Amino acid sequence: MALSTLSSAGLAVLRSYVLLVIYRLTFHPLARYPGNFTDKISSWPLIYQCYRGNRHLRILEAHKKYGSVIRIAPDTLDFDTTTAMAAIHRDRNANVRKGAWYKTVDAETGTFSVQTVIDRKEHNFRRRILEPAFSHSALRIQEHFIDNNVRVFLHEMGKDVQEDGWTTPKDFSQWITYFGFDFISDLAFGSCFRLLQSPEHRYLPDLLKWTSHFVYYAGYLPFAPLVRAVMGTSIMNHVPSQAARDTHKYYLEAESKLGERSAAEEEAWSSGKEGRRDIFHYLFRTRDPETNIGLSHEQLQADSGLLIAAGSDGVAVTVSAALFYLLHNSSSMAKLVHEIRSSFATLDDVRNPQMNRLPYLQAVIDESLRLAPSVLSAFPREVLRGGLNVDGLHVPVGMTVGVSGYAIHHNETYFPDSFAFRPERWLGDGESVSLARSALITFGAGTYNCIGKNVAIAAAKLVLAKTIYAYDVKAARGKVTGGGGPAAGRGREREDEYQLLDYLVAYRSGPMVQFRTRNEK
Ligand code: HEM
């Protein structure tokens, strides 16, 4: 009897699932859009791709096969055109809001960061509070904090010199990640993690990696609300997933940094001092001009977690990709070396405003941002009542849309020979350059674009230019590691393409490199 009840319940579930599949393939509002069969009928392939880190590869593959608009999940479309980028992301009045996936990112803290807040009015408020910390005048002061960390980085890179004058091999991606964490903690909180100098906090990059990985796929799970309900509770310490436990630890770390910084600011405030002009200095003191309200402790906490994540890995991805491609392309390396070494008389001179006037350096950074965007796949935007017109198509309310960086950056209309590293495509002011510029989405676009873009570019340029000024660099054992290969998996066959794992932020390893103090002539 019990068995027959169970089997009829099973049959009922199966029947409703079959009906759902039929609906998704026939009467569903996105039924007519092309895409892989499995993606049309279920969200699980997308979740699995987020888990495996190959979502960007599968999306590019589908665009190459089906065209500029593809269905990547039953309710989700991905586009790879500049017109879609304008309609969905760049247009500040686009009829969309951030998708429900964002709710999982900060579920640990119980409140949203500026990036994950969904309500538009609330986002405008959070953004207004952040703006003074990212103004040009703030950046001029902050460059000094970045430079201090570049100095430490260079010192570490020059260590362990062998008899032939070259250092022992170093995993550049690992060291530049340490730099990323150090400069952003210094810049945000005024207390550097000191990963470059000491092993004590070197568990942090892995912590962040597994946190990103976890929230990335967990946010798309059909039972994500349940996951969110337990995040931030002590249950997380007992769940069998290491990644889930790490997420909890990561936020505790960010909270402790915030606590230290807040105490220092209060001390400065009570003794009438100006205080250190780092990012949190502005965040503690800024009030919304419209309401005179500042950020609550919880909001500051969520933003501290975001700043460490956004600042550290983005810069690290860009600079390691730049070095990977420069080592693969000796003529580009030679041009960059010449530009940097002939523009400055000493290492200390390598700074702004002169550094910003070097066209080839800027082009190398742009090309690295294109080939290795640290956000590889689209952040979801949910269409609101009334629908959204994209590329002549009407997308109805409730559907999710986006433009994925890795896909549009390999659209041959905007980037011919798109897998080739060619900084020259960014030089001059021709039509092809403005077309390329209009298709670069590494920092997002529109209302929710990256507020830290100028900081990121300044840090990436400074650390790359100073490294190239101070050292000759070569691939360890004559082989540039970090690329693909025949056994690396589908979409990862190219040896001269820097390989990235799409775990919300892009993860990477290599190139292994050696440094030699250069002979100054
Ligand atoms: C190469 C480095 C970086 C890249 C590629 C990058 C990329 C992005 C992208 C794509 C977004 C939009 C996210 C979305 O649509 O949900 C974003 C937002 C954001 N980024 Fe960055 N970022 C970088 C560095 C930084 C740095 C250095 C900081 C801070 C110092 C920063 C702070 C932020 C903040 C606060 C937001 C949220 C803005 C908002 O929602 O209004 N980022 N970033």
UniProtKB/TrEMBL annotation:
Alphabetical keyword list: Heme, Iron, Metal-binding
Pfam families on file: p450 (PF00067)
Record InterPro entries: Cyt_P450, Cyt_P450_E_grp-IV, Cyt_P450_sf, Cytochrome_P450_monoxygenase
Names of the cofactor(s): heme
Recorded coiled-coil stretches: none
GO molecular function ontology, one term from the record: oxidoreductase activity, acting on paired donors, with incorporation or reduction of molecular oxygen
Keyword Heme: yes
Record keyword Translocase present: no
Binding site for heme: 450
Protein family: Belongs to the cytochrome P450 family.
PANTHER family, per database record: CYTOCHROME P450 (PTHR24305), CYTOCHROME P450 MONOOXYGENASE (PTHR24305:SF226)
Protein name from the UniProt record: Benzoate 4-monooxygenase cytochrome P450
Organism for this UniProt entry: Rhizodiscina lignyota
Organism classification: Eukaryota, Fungi, Dikarya, Ascomycota, Pezizomycotina
